[in-house]
Design goal:
The chain is mainly α. Helices cover 79% and strands 0% of the residues. The chain has one domain.
Length: 77
């Protein structure tokens, strides 16, 4: 998939998978919310003070649409 937003999102998610909270915590708020959703890390959302609906509402719709795509790509690697 040649989409710069997808590539950015996937890269941030991979960073969080490999670096855990330390890698995730330095990302922007939007990136952190999207990555937490893609990784099913509701504890990370909670630590930021967001519910799932609030996190989704905060994100651009293109990022929201990519959440399942990125989650699948991470499972398939």
């Amino acid at each position: 998939m040649e989409n710069p937003i997808y590539e950015q999102f996937l890269g941030k998610a991979q960073d969080a998978v490999h670096g855990g909270d330390r890698a995730w915590s330095v990302q922007s708020t939007g990136e952190r919310l999207a990555v937490a959703l893609a990784l099913n890390r509701f504890d990370w959302l909670s630590a930021m003070g967001y519910t799932i609906p609030e996190a989704i509402d905060r994100l651009d719709q293109e990022w929201v649409a990519l959440i399942p795509v990125v989650a699948k790509a991470l499972r398939d690697t």
